[in-house]
From TrEMBL, chain A:
Gene: LOC107420295
Source species of the chain: Ziziphus jujuba (Chinese jujube)
Biased composition (Low complexity): 245-263
Name of the featured protein: Proteasome subunit alpha type
Signal peptide, first to last residue: none
Domain Proteasome alpha-type subunits: 6-28
TrEMBL record, chain B:
Record keyword Transport present: no
Stated name of the protein: Proteasome subunit beta
Gene Ontology CC: cytoplasm; nucleus; proteasome core complex
Cytoplasm recorded as keyword: yes
Protein localization: Cytoplasm; Nucleus
Any single GO BP term: proteolysis involved in protein catabolic process
Subunit structure and binding partners: Component of the proteasome complex. Component of the 20S core complex of the 26S proteasome. The 26S proteasome is composed of a core protease (CP), known as the 20S proteasome, capped at one or both ends by the 19S regulatory particle (RP/PA700). The 20S proteasome core is composed of 28 subunits that are arranged in four stacked rings, resulting in a barrel-shaped structure. The two end rings are each formed by seven alpha subunits, and the two central rings are each formed by seven beta subunits. The catalytic chamber with the active sites is on the inside of the barrel.
Chain coiled-coil ranges: none
TrEMBL record, chain C:
Annotated protein name in UniProt: Proteasome subunit beta
Pfam family, one: Proteasome
GO cellular component: a single term: cytoplasm
SUPFAM superfamilies for the chain: N-terminal nucleophile aminohydrolases (Ntn hydrolases)
Organism: Ziziphus jujuba (Chinese jujube)
Region (Disordered): 1-21
Gene name tied to this protein: LOC107419581
Biological process per Gene Ontology, one example term: proteolysis involved in protein catabolic process
Lineage per the UniProt record: Eukaryota, Viridiplantae, Streptophyta, Embryophyta, Tracheophyta
Keyword entries, A-Z: Cytoplasm, Nucleus, Proteasome
Family of the protein in this entry: Belongs to the peptidase T1B family.
InterPro entries linked to this entry: Ntn_hydrolases_N, Proteasome_alpha, Proteasome_beta4, Proteasome_bsu_CS, Proteasome_sua/b, Proteasome_suB-type
Bias type Low complexity, positions: 9-20
Length: 287, 223, 249
């Protein structure tokens, strides 16, 4: 197999101006099970797909409460995600201790990104193998950020990361313009539908997804399973009534997306096998 | 230049009295809202009562800056506890945490005199009483602060709790009903206000029971 | 402020305990001090008043020190006590606000945040036995919310509808308690502050008749030019204070 000369150290540039170790870390994000976030003016909803690692085990927690006004959903190395969410919790507690007011979301995200960036520039470190969707509310409104291992961060109206997230992104891209004025409940519904898109035809059940909400007058919390199942039941009937309008389209998008993803993501000369797990269920990198 | 100020002290006594009474299924925690320094009143509306968890409430008097630092530290520790255990801390657990926190500063103590009241895991009222460096005891009722010397003997007399020396140990909770306990608290504060210059202005009463948490206020003498 | 060492002039200093105290560098007493600051909430925001004197013991050393300063967009800070410590504190706050502005993200520190920050600074310094020798008054308005609080040298802090430091707590607060109400207009607020400042001027030896009044509302702050109060010293008790006290000088 072809061996890449420039991918053994984080701090080594390739002649093409790339940092392969950092890119590999971003591959880890793509292989984690999907996480989705979307926001209106007042609310942000996070959703994620729970995949058990084995028949015998339960799934790992992928959504963490950081503070009353901030929460994260992760995709990639869950262990790294836990470390970062612990860091975020302690930053929030410290800020609150000094100012007795909540830490603005954007500032926490920058601090987090700076922390991730340091790992891309030190020979004795490795980048975090986790992508975080940070949902939060502050005086400038509701926010949704995506933080990635490279130290880059972006603000989104709606976004999805992790395996087969392209399907969810396609759905979100079709609908995101309505989100701004969405009600909280519609936002949750859209989150569930987007989650279903990533399941490739598998039935959406509350046991395989987690939903969390933060918004005006509503501190960050994870919805309990019964509530989620009720919501799913409610809209699954509606969708059945509407007919298969969205279903086949979504399936087609998904197929294209998977190919597109495999085509563009696999960096030249890398042997990570991105996209190799498509459809294989449990993500190996999440262990 | 000659020295004009007295030697600087890192402590002040901002006064105030606290009382807590535990019943079979309730707990009453009360404190006045006056904050003083020397012979002056700084403010007439400063709450000395701090809700630390769903079922534990702390009332503190002494040096306000230390009390505030203590409250903030406990609040932060409780947040961490919630993140790690996904539940509220129980009152006995908070009592131990408070003791450890106070003892941690054994050689530069928090100048704060606390009573912690709440409901234990069985829903029974509990009161923990402390000294400034963390020694504590679970009791049926207690008073701390500048008026405690006036209030405590009155409570002893009225509540007639079984001696802690009895064997086998008797339950320390008071036999009063919730309404009787609230009335008693109002009486002791009205009395303490008569003689203690650091107690007065307003009484804040927090009542914890199975229904949740409730607050009451009563005006006190302002002189 | 300027650090100084404790050294009792002619006492031999050989006890290790005394030595450790002698080695420590800390403010043992203030040098140049400002006297009371008073402030109150009124209908649209906060009003604050302070005179401009700086006393070196009983010497009037400075006559034009500004003891009320704006902090960010939403807060006013007034200080009594050691003036150099206050000016150092202003440098901390300048940096704090600068970093806050540099985020440029639509969030900003309001009066509550600044007050809490100050409380932490004061309390941390007292924990190090190296206090900033001030009583601070912080007032401001943000998002329609009026805020007025105080912090002492050792970190004691509280909020109230009206506050006063030093002599003001003895002389001005009783007047404020008597006359203050929620719907005070700007004019009435200023009148009330002037009444308090006049009492302080008559009774506080270190007060000077040159003061500033500052206002902060949702629209922003204004700090007045220095001005003086009209006083009347012609009372017979002032002119011949011992006339009714036979047998004294």
């Amino acid at each position: 197999m072809f061996r890449n000369q420039y991918d053994t150290e984080v701090t080594t540039w390739s002649p093409a101006g790339r940092l392969f170790q950092v890119e590999y870390a971003m591959e880890a994000v793509k292989q984690g099970s999907a996480a989705i976030g979307l926001r209106s003016k007042t609310h942000v909803v996070l959703a994620c797909v729970n995949k058990a690692n084995s028949e015998l085990s339960s799934h790992q927690k992928k959504i963490f409460k950081v503070d009353d006004h901030i929460g994260v959903a992760i995709a990639g190395l869950t262990a790294d995600g836990r470390v970062l969410s612990r860091y975020m919790r302690s930053e929030c507690i410290n800020y609150n201790y000094t100012y007795e007011s909540p830490l603005p979301v954007g500032r926490l995200v920058v601090q987090l990104a700076d922390k991730a960036q340091v790992c891309t520039q030190r020979s004795w470190k490795r980048p975090y193998g986790v992508g975080l969707l940070v949902a939060g509310l502050d005086e400038s409104g509701a926010h949704l950020y995506y933080n990635c291992p490279s130290g880059n961060y972006f603000e989104y109206q709606a976004f999805a990361i992790g395996s087969r997230s392209q399907a969810a992104k396609t759905y979100l891209e079709r609908r995101f313009e309505n989100f701004k004025d969405s009600s909280r409940d519609d936002l949750v519904k859209d989150a569930l539908i987007a989650t279903r898109e990533t399941l490739q035809g598998e039935k959406l059940r509350s046991s395989i997804c987690t939903i969390a909400v933060v918004g005006a007058g509503e501190p960050f919390h994870i919805l309990d399973q019964e509530t989620v199942q009720q919501l799913i039941d409610a809209f699954e009937i509606v969708v059945d009534d509407e007919g298969p309008a969205s279903e086949p389209g979504a399936a087609a998008d998904e197929g294209a997306a998977a190919e597109e993803g495999a085509g563009t993501d696999t960096g030249a000369g890398t042997d990570t096998g991105a996209g190799a797990d498509q459809g294989s269920g449990a993500a190996p990198m999440e262990i | 230049m000659t020295k004009q100020q007295a030697n600087w002290s890192p402590y002040d006594n901002n006064g105030g009295s606290c009382v807590a009474i535990a019943g079979a299924d309730y707990c009453v925690i009360a404190a006045d809202t006056r904050m003083s320094t020397g012979y002056s009143i700084l403010t007439r509306e400063y709450s000395k009562i701090c809700k630390l968890a769903d079922k534990s409430v702390m009332a503190s008097s002494g040096f306000q800056a230390d009390v505030k630092a203590l409250q903030k530290l406990l609040a932060a520790r409780h947040l961490i506890y919630q993140h790690q255990h996904n539940k509220q801390m129980s009152c006995p657990a908070m009592a131990q945490l408070l003791s450890n926190t106070l003892y941690y500063k054994r050689f530069f103590p928090y100048y704060s005199f606390n009573v912690l009241g709440g409901l234990d895991n069985e829903g029974k009222g509990c009161v923990f009483t402390y000294d400034a460096v963390g020694s504590y005891e679970r009791v049926g009722y207690s008073s701390q602060g500048s008026g405690s010397t006036l209030i405590m003997p009155f409570l002893d007399n009225q509540l007639k709790s079984p001696s802690p020396l009895l064997l086998p140990a008797q339950d320390a909770v008071t036999p009063l009903s919730e309404a009787e306990a609230v009335d008693l608290v109002k009486t002791v504060f009205a009395s303490a206000t008569e003689r203690d210059i650091y107690t007065g202005d307003k009484l804040e009463i927090v009542i914890l029971n199975a229904d949740g948490i409730r607050r009451e206020y009563m005006e006190l003498r302002k002189d | 402020m300027e650090k100084m060492t404790l050294q009792d002039s002619n006492q031999p200093n050989n006890s290790p305990l005394l030595n450790s105290e002698a080695d420590s560098q800390r403010t043992l007493y203030p040098y140049v001090t400002g006297t009371s600051v008073i402030a109150l909430k009124y209908k649209d925001g906060i009003l604050m008043a302070a005179d401009m004197g700086g006393s070196y013991g009983s010497t009037l050393r400075y006559k034009c020190v500004e003891r009320i300063k704006p902090i960010g967009k939403h807060s006013l800070l007034g200080a009594s006590g050691e003036l150099s410590d206050f000016q150092e504190l202003l440098r901390y706050l300048d940096e704090l606000i600068l970093y806050d502005n540099m985020w440029d993200d639509g969030n900003s520190l309001g009066p509550k945040e600044v007050h809490n920050y100050l409380t932490r600074v004061m309390y941390n310094r007292r924990n190090k036995f190296n206090p900033l020798w001030n009583s601070l008054v912080l007032g401001g308005v943000k998002n329609g919310h009026k805020y007025l609080g105080m912090v002492s040298m050792i970190g004691v802090n509280f909020e109230d509808n009206h506050v006063a430091t030093g002599f003001g707590n003895h002389l001005a607060r009783p007047i404020l308690r008597d006359e203050w109400h929620e719907n005070l207009s700007f004019e009435d607020g200023v009148k009330l502050l002037e009444k308090c400042m006049r009492v302080l001027l008559y009774r506080d030896r270190s007060a000077v008749n040159k003061l500033q009044i500052a206002k902060i509302t949702e629209e922003g702050f204004t700090i007045s030019q220095p001005y003086s109060l009209k006083t009347f010293w012609g009372f017979s008790a002032f002119q011949n204070p011992t006339v009714g006290a036979e047998g004294s000088w």
